[in-house]
Amino acid sequence: MNTSSGSAECALISWGIAALVAVVAFAMLMLLGGWTFMQAAFVGAIVLVLGGIGMMWAFCRPLPGPNEVTLEKVTAPVASAAPAPAPAPAPAQP
Questions:
Q1: Which candidate, 6, 17, 18, 76, has a CA 20 to 30 Å from the CA of 44?
Q2: Quick check: 66 pLDDT over 50?
């Protein structure tokens, strides 16, 4: 199976997609939002950095092998054998 997880190709694709999203955000902020060049460029840079790092973290991490996955045993609480006695009813007031 050919996977590109963890390779330079995965990083380039992630940063390329993040750059496209940043350019679209920059253009939309300038054209539709009425922002100045510097305001839109600053937000575009933030979108680029966060998008690139986020996509690399999500898609370019090495995957575990088939024998490396460990499952934790979940234990249910054990019910006691004898139920607790019910409280005595309060005497009725006349």
A1: 6
A2: yes
Average pLDDT, stretch 81-93?
73
Distance between CA atoms of 10 and 85, rounded to whole angstroms? 64
Query: CB of 4 within 8 A of CB of 10?
Result: yes
pLDDT at 4 over 90: no
- Structure tokens that stand for 73 in this block: 């045993």
Q: Do 57 and 6 meet the contact criterion of CB atoms below 8 Å apart?
A: no
Can you list the pairs that 8-12 forms with residues at least 24 positions away whose Cβ atoms lie under 8 Å?
Answer: 10/56, 10/59, 10/60, 11/56, 11/60
